[in-house]
Design brief:
Layout: E1 4-13, E2 22-26, E3 30-36, H1 41-59, H2 66-83, E4 90-97, E5 102-108, E6 112-117, E7 120-124, H3 130-137, H4 145-148, E8 155-156, E9 159-160, E10 164-169, E11 175-179, H5 181-184, H6 189-196, H7 202-213, E12 222-231
């Protein structure tokens, strides 16, 4: 049987921001997005460092060391940010397809990753912000709109927060999506799944997801990568 690989594509929209501080990256084995916090150029640089370091980590992993490597990725990103003198923080979300056909999903912050199989969401990461924390704990305190989007986890030179990690056995046809909060906060999960059911080409699907949030007033940067699991060349 041929090894499984990813057929991936990305799309972005700057929204109402002055610059694009989201960064996407993908290959035959991984997809990733990162969202640098803030509006200055260093935020985009921090996001780029995050996806580059994460991709390097993923590329060097084997099945036996995948969990350890993914759990250690925030610390590796933090070291890289420190080495470049960057104080900006960033979120990231990624998926890695190993040589055994296992799909590893991971995230830190409010960028999210999900796996969809035949229209069913099999796995989706939890956003690390106050709104999700309140929903999880059932607190009586209702976060204000500003509190709701406050991050509870991120990565910076002095804050390598713990990532969420999940793993599933991949199958040909599975769809992987990584998206920044500019898409996730505006596009409910059922709408996202409906968009994914409307086509098959990863580039078309990524473009459709971004199109869903175009025109939102005061919109954040919006970025995603969509990948389909396919059989590789024999």
């Amino acid at each position: 049987m041929s090894a499984l690989v990813l057929d991936a594509a990305a799309a972005q929209w700057v929204g109402a921001r002055e610059r694009q501080n989201d960064v996407t990256l993908y290959g035959e084995r991984f997809v990733a997005v990162a969202d640098g916090a803030g509006d200055d150029l260093s935020a985009a640089v921090a996001a780029d460092v995050a996806v580059q370091v994460w991709a390097q980590q993923a590329d060097s992993l084997d099945s036996a060391g995948t969990l350890h490597g993914l759990l250690g990725a925030p610390a590796a990103v933090a070291r890289a940010l420190t080495a470049q003198g960057l104080r900006s923080s960033t979120t990231y979300a990624g998926a890695f397809l190993d040589s055994d056909g296992l799909v590893w999903l991971t995230s830190v912050g409010d960028s999210r990753v999900l796996l969809v199989r035949r229209g069913e969401v099999l796995a989706v990461s939890r956003p690390h912000n106050r709104a999700a924390e309140a929903a999880l704990t059932g607190t009586d305190h209702v976060p204000t709109p500003q509190e709701a989007v406050t991050l509870t986890r991120s990565v910076s030179c002095d804050r390598p927060d713990v990532p969420d990690v999940a793993v599933l056995a991949g199958q040909p046809g599975d769809l992987l999506v990584v998206a920044t909060d500019g898409i996730d906060t505006e596009l409910a999960l059922h709408r996202l799944v409906r968009v994914l059911a409307a086509g098959s080409d990863p580039q078309d699907l990524a473009d459709r997801l971004v199109a869903e949030v175009r025109g939102v007033p005061d919109a954040d940067n919006a970025s995603c990568v969509v990948a389909r699991v396919v059989a590789g060349a024999a």
